[in-house]
Design goal:
With about 650 residues, the protein is an alpha/beta fold. It contains 21 helices and 16 strands. The protein has helices at about 5-10, 15-40, 50-70, 70-80, 90-120, 125-130, 135-145, 150-170, 180-200, 225-230, 235-240, 255-260, 310-315, 330-340, 365-370, 385-395, 400-405, 420-430, 465-485, 545-555, 620-645; strands at about 265, 280-285, 320, 325, 375-380, 400, 435-440, 495-500, 525, 535, 540-545, 560, 575-580, 585-590, 590-595, 600-605. The strands form 4 sheets. The protein has an 8-stranded mixed sheet, with helices on both faces. The longest helix has about 30 residues, at about 90-120. It comes from Dyadobacter subterraneus. It is a multi-pass membrane protein. It is found in: Cell membrane.
C-alpha cells in the first residue's frame, strides 16, 4: 500500500485539486466585488478605506454560499467514492463543467458592474424573469456588449483564468490503495465535505443559525445601499429564486385614491402636547401565544384553566390590554420588522425579500432623533437568525448578543443564553444607559427542544405540549426581571411593551388551531404609575405593527411618520388588523375577511364563531363590501410602496 501525505504526494490529489479550484473561484468573486465597487463608487460616497475592507471581508461569507451553489454538481462528482472518477473522459467533462458554470456566475457579477446603475440593486431572480418576457433579448444583450465592451473583456480575462487553472490543477492517477480502502477513505472524506458544504451554504454551523439571506449583509454596513457591495449577484439570484416577488396591483387608480380608504401616513395631533421622553422597553417573547395565558382563557377546561404564565396574569391587572391582539406573521424573522418598523410579513418575511435596502420607517431611528440611545438584546450567538444585521439596518445603535454576555456557563447549548440570566443582564445593562433610552429584547428559551435549566426540572407545569414548561420558565424569568427593574431609577419613567414573535407552532386547544388562533398573541402596554394605561379594551384591535405608532402616540411624537399600523390610543378611524395565511386576512372589529388577491373566499365573525365554522361570504354585503375595499387599499399601499421604495413620509 503506497499512501503518503507529503506535499509532493498530495499535489494532483483529487481533493486537493477540488480545494484549490474552489479557492480560485472565491478569489475571482472577490475581484468582481472590488471591480463592482470601482465601477460604482459614485453610489457609495464617503466610504473609508477601513470600512471598505470591512465590507469586502463581510462578502466572503456570501461568496462561499454562491460558489458552493454554483459548483454543487462539480463538488459532488469530484467526491463520489468510486474509482471511475479518475478516468480521463470523466475528468475532461468535469473541466468543462467547472469552467462553464463558473463562467456564467462570473458573467452575472460582471453585468452588474453596469446594470446596477439602472436599478440601484443587484440583479435578482425576479429581474431575470422580467427579462425572460422580452422578445428582443438578442439585440438587448448584443447592445450591452457593444456599449460596455470593456466589461466583456474583463469577463473574458476572468474566464481565461478559469481555463488556465484547470490546466494547472490536474487530477493525477489515483493513489495505490485496495478498492475497499479507497472506498472507505473517500466515503469519509465525502462525508466531511458534505458537512462543510452544509455549513457553508447556511452561513455557519451553529444550530440556531438560519440560512443567510440578503438582509444578513446589513450586519456589515453603515448605510443600506452598501449591502450590494457585500453581496454578489449569483447569491442574490439564488436567494430570490424561490421567493414570490411582489407584483404591482391597481385596485385603485393610484396611491392617493387608495389612501382615502387606508393610508400609512401619520400626522401629529392638531393640538400637540409636549413630548414625553419616557424610556421605551420592548420584550419579544419566543412563541408566546395566547393559549399559554390563563386570563385569556377562562372558558377552557370548564373554567378551571389556569395557564402557564402566572406572572403575566398578574401584570395584566396593571397594564393596558387589548383583548383581541394579533401577530402580523408566523415566523420569528417577521416579528422584528412588524414591531420595530411597522412593516408586516405579507406573503414572505420582509427580511428575506430584496426590499430590505429600501428607506425604512423605524421606531429606533425616530427615537434617536429625540435624543434616545437604542439597543437590541438577543441571547443567541451573534448573527443568529439575521437579527443583528436587520436591527443595524434600521438604526439600532448597539447590539448585545451571546458574545457581549461573554459567559458560556449560561449557554443552553443550542439556542443561546438562558432567559433568566439574560434578562437579568438586560436589566443591569439598561441601568448603565443614559435616559431616555429605547431597548428591545428577544427571548430564546421557549424554543424546540423546550428545555429548562436542570435546577428548574419539575418546577413548572408541563401540560399537554412541551412548550408549556418553557413558557412557565420564561414567565418566571420575567418576574425576576421586573423585580430587578423596580429597584432601578429608570423604572417609573418607562413604558414597557410585552408581546410575542408569533404564536406557538403547535396549539392544543381547537380555537387556537384556526387561521385566527394561529395569529393570536398577547400585546401588553405597561407604564408604572400611569393610571391611564390600565384596563381592558375589548373593542380596539391591536397587532404588532401597531406598537410603533402607539408608542409614538403615547409619547406625543410631534412630526409626521410612516407606519402601516395604527395608534391605538388615538381612537383610530380604521379598527383593523392584517396578516397572511395563504390568503390575506383582514380583521375589522368582530369580523375577519379572507381575500385571495382577486376575490373574498371567507367572512367570519371570529369573536362569536371562534372555530370559524360559519362562512358568511356574500351573506353580509354591508360588512363584506367595505372590508374588501379596505384590504385592497392596504395591499396596494403595501405592495406598490415596497416596489417603489416609498416607505417613508418623504417622496
Amino acid at each position: 500500500m503506497n499512501f503518503s501525505l507529503s506535499p509532493a504526494a498530495l499535489r494532483g490529489r483529487i481533493h486537493v485539486v477540488l480545494l484549490f479550484r474552489i479557492l480560485w473561484v472565491m478569489i475571482l468573486f472577490t475581484i468582481c466585488r472590488i471591480l463592482f465597487y470601482a465601477f460604482n463608487t459614485v453610489f457609495f460616497p464617503e466610504i473609508s478605506f477601513d470600512h471598505a475592507l470591512h465590507l469586502m471581508s463581510g462578502g466572503i461569507k456570501f461568496d462561499i454560499v454562491a460558489v458552493f451553489y454554483v459548483n454543487i454538481l462539480f463538488i459532488f462528482l469530484m467526491c463520489v467514492p468510486f474509482t471511475f472518477k479518475y478516468r480521463k473522459g470523466y475528468q475532461k467533462f468535469l473541466d468543462y463543467l467547472f469552467v462553464i458554470t463558473n463562467s456564467i456566475a462570473i458573467m452575472a457579477n460582471c453585468m452588474d458592474f453596469i446594470y446596477y446603475r439602472f436599478t440601484i440593486k443587484r440583479t435578482t431572480w425576479s429581474i431575470l424573469k422580467e427579462f425572460s418576457h422580452q422578445d428582443n433579448m438578442g439585440s438587448l444583450f448584443g447592445g450591452f456588449i457593444f456599449r460596455y465592451w470593456y466589461v466583456a473583456v474583463i469577463w473574458i480575462l476572468l474566464v481565461l483564468s478559469l481555463v488556465q487553472i484547470t490546466r494547472i490543477l490536474k487530477v493525477k492517477e489515483r493513489e495505490n490503495l485496495p478498492v475497499w480502502a479507497f472506498f472507505l477513505i473517500h466515503s469519509v472524506l465525502m462525508g466531511i465535505i458534505v458537512e462543510l458544504f452544509i455549513g457553508g451554504v447556511r452561513g455557519g454551523f451553529a444550530h440556531s443559525i438560519r440560512p443567510i439571506t440578503l438582509s444578513n449583509a446589513g450586519e456589515y454596513v453603515k448605510k443600506p445601499k452598501e449591502m450590494f457591495i457585500v453581496l454578489n449577484t449569483p447569491f442574490c439570484i439564488f436567494k430570490t429564486m424561490r421567493r414570490s416577488d411582489y407584483e404591482r396591483v391597481n385596485y385603485f387608480p393610484g396611491l392617493k385614491e387608495a389612501g382615502q380608504v387606508f393610508s400609512p401616513m401619520h400626522q401629529p395631533d392638531s393640538i400637540q402636547l409636549p413630548f414625553k421622553p419616557k424610556n421605551v422597553v420592548i420584550l419579544i417573547w419566543e412563541s408566546f401565544g395566547k393559549e399559554m395565558v390563563g386570563t385569556y382563557n377562562r372558558d377552557l377546561e370548564n373554567g378551571t384553566y389556569k395557564g402557564y404564565t402566572p406572572f403575566i396574569d398578574s401584570l395584566m391587572q396593571h397594564s393596558r390590554v387589548n383583548w383581541y391582539s394579533f401577530a402580523n406573521g408566523a415566523k420569528s424573522i417577521e416579528a422584528i420588522p412588524s414591531v420595530l418598523t411597522s412593516i408586516p410579513g405579507i406573503k414572505e418575511p420582509f427580511v428575506t425579500m430584496r426590499y430590505t435596502d429600501n428607506k425604512l420607517p423605524s421606531l429606533p431611528a425616530i427615537l434617536e432623533s429625540k435624543g434616545y440611545s437604542t439597543s437590541f438584546f438577543h441571547g443567541a450567538p451573534n448573527g443568529s437568525m439575521g437579527f443583528q444585521a436587520f436591527v443595524n439596518l434600521i438604526g439600532v445603535q448597539k447590539y448585545y448578543g451571546k458574545n457581549e454576555y461573554n459567559n458560556d456557563a449560561d449557554y443552553d447549548g443550542i439556542w443561546g443564553i438562558w432567559d433568566e440570566e439574560f434578562l437579568q443582564y438586560w436589566a443591569k445593562t439598561m441601568n448603565t444607559f443614559k435616559e431616555p433610552f429605547m431597548s428591545t429584547l428577544f427571548t430564546v428559551s421557549s424554543h424546540d427542544p423546550y428545555k429548562v435549566p436542570e435546577r428548574y426540572k419539575g418546577k413548572f407545569p408541563t401540560g399537554p405540549l412541551p412548550v408549556y414548561e418553557t413558557m412557565g420558565y420564561t414567565d418566571n424569568a420575567l418576574r425576576a426581571f421586573f423585580a430587578k427593574a423596580k429597584t432601578m431609577p429608570w423604572f417609573k419613567n418607562t413604558i414597557f411593551v410585552i408581546t410575542a414573535d408569533h404564536a406557538a407552532t403547535f396549539a392544543h386547544y381547537p380555537k387556537y388551531q384556526t387561521s385566527v388562533g394561529n395569529f393570536s398573541i398577547p400585546i401588553l402596554f405597561y407604564a408604572p404609575g400611569d393610571s391611564t394605561m390600565i384596563g381592558r379594551d375589548t373593542t380596539t384591535l391591536v397587532q404588532q405593527i401597531d406598537i410603533m405608532p402607539s408608542v409614538l402616540g403615547y409619547l406625543h411624537y410631534d412630526k409626521p411618520y410612516f407606519a402601516f399600523g395604527k395608534n391605538i390610543f388615538k381612537n383610530p378611524p380604521l379598527n383593523f388588523a392584517v396578516n397572511y395565511d395563504g390568503v390575506y386576512q383582514w380583521f375589522n372589529g368582530p369580523y375577519i375577511l379572507q381575500f385571495d388577491g382577486k376575490k373574498t373566499v371567507g367572512l367570519y365573525n371570529y369573536q362569536k364563531d371562534n372555530l370559524l365554522k360559519n362562512n358568511l361570504k356574500d351573506k353580509l354585503p354591508a360588512i363584506q363590501g367595505p372590508m374588501e375595499l379596505q384590504v385592497k387599499a392596504f395591499v396596494q399601499q403595501y405592495t406598490n410602496r415596497m416596489l417603489d421604495d416609498k416607505l417613508t413620509v418623504t417622496p
